[in-house]
Amino acid sequence: MLSAADSGIRQQAVRRRRAAAPCLLLLAAIGCGVSNTSDSAGDSSPSADAIRSEVERGPVKVILEVSPRSPRLSDEPQLTVLIRSEPGVRIEKPPFGTALGDFLIRDFQEPVPGADGQTQVLRQVYTLEPTRAGKLTIAPITFRFHDERPDGDGQTHTLESEALTVEVSTVLGDAAPSLADLRPAAGPVELPAGGSHSGQWLAGMAVLLAVAGAVVWKVRRLKTPVSAPLSPQELAWLELEQVVERRLAESDIKAYYVELTGVVRRYIERSTAVSAPEQTTEEFLREIVQDAVFADEDQRRLQQFLESADLVKFAALEPAASDIEDSFERAKEFIRLQREETQEVAV
Fold it and tell me: In degrees rounded to 5, what are phi and psi of residue 157?
C-alpha cells in the first residue's frame, strides 16, 4: 500500500511526463524534416558507371553526369545537369533544342527545385539517343547567372562546362568479327609433272580469242552507252550535294529549308506511293501514319524534321547555326536509315 505522500509524488511525475510529450513529438518532427531535406537536395554520389564533370565559378557550381559510361548504339543514355547556387543568384538555364552535340534529345525531365541548407539546387535530366557508334562528344554547355546577392557585384556572368566524350559501341560489341581471326593465305601449290601442255595452251588461247571477239562485236552494236538508273537514295545524295554547293544557308535561309525539305519529300515520293511534294506537312504526315509507310521511330524523326523546317519557312523563325547543321544532318540520317532498311529487306 502506498502512503499519501508517495501517491502524491507519483501523480506529479505522471503529469510532468504528459506535459513534456508534445514537446518531444515536435522536436522529433523538426529533426526528421531537416534530415530529409539535406538528403534529397545534396549532390548525388559519383557513380562508377558514369562520366562526371564539375565546374565552379563564384557562387555557382555545375555538375554534369552521363550514364552509362560506355553505352551501346541501341541504348538511351541519360545526361543529368545539377546546378548549385547561393541565395540571391538567378540562373538562366541553357535552352537545348532537339539535339546535344552528337546526341539527339528524346526526353526531358526537370524535378522541382530543392535546397541543401542555404544552397539552391536545380536538376535537369535528359534522355539521349546516339546518332552513330564511336567517340561522340557533348560540347561545352554555357550557363548564365545574375549575381543579385546583397554583397554581390550585380553583374551577369557565364560558366562553361567541360566537353564530355562518350564511347558508343555497336550492338555486336565484342562479338564483332575481326580480321585477326582470318587464316593466313596458303602457300603456292606445285603442279604435277607431266608431258607437254602445248595443246591445252592453244585451246585456252582459242577460247580467250573467241570471248574477246564476242565482246568487241557486242560493243560495236551499241550506239550509245546505257548506264544503270540511279536509285532514290543516290538521287537524294546528289540533290543534297547541290544544296551544299549553292550555299543557300548563307544567302537565303528560307530557300535553304525549302530545298532541304524538298529533297526529303522527293525521295519519299520516289521510294513510296505517297505524293509528298503535293501535300502540306499535316496531310503528308497523316497519310504516312495511316498507311504505316515507315516504322514508328522513323515517322517521329520525319515529323520533327518537317515541323522544325516549317517554323523557318512559314513562321519566319531565325535558326541558329547549330540548328541549320542539325537539320541537314537529320535529312541525311533519314535517307541513310531508309537505305539501310531497304538493303536489309533485299538481303
Answer: -125, 160
Query: Taking the chain, what is the end-to-end CA distance rounded to the nearest angstrom?
Result: 101
pLDDT digits (tens, 9 = 90+) for 160-209: 889 889 999 876 555 555 555 556 666 776 655 554 566 677 777 788 88
pLDDT band at 222 (very low <50, low <70, confident <90, very high): low
Quote the CA–CA distance of 79 and 104 in Å, as a whole number.
12
135 and 99 Cβ atoms separated by less than 8 Å: no
- Distance in angstroms (rounded) separating the CA atoms of residues 310 and 95: 20
CATH of domain 51-172: 2.60.40
Half-sphere exposure of 306 (CA within 13 A, CB side): 23
Domain ranges of the chain: 51-172, 232-346
Q: Look-up: residue for cell 554534369?
A: 64
Indicate the SS3 state at residue 147: strand
- Interatomic CA distance for residues 282 and 305, integer angstroms: 13
C-alpha–C-alpha distance, residues 232 and 340, integer Å: 13
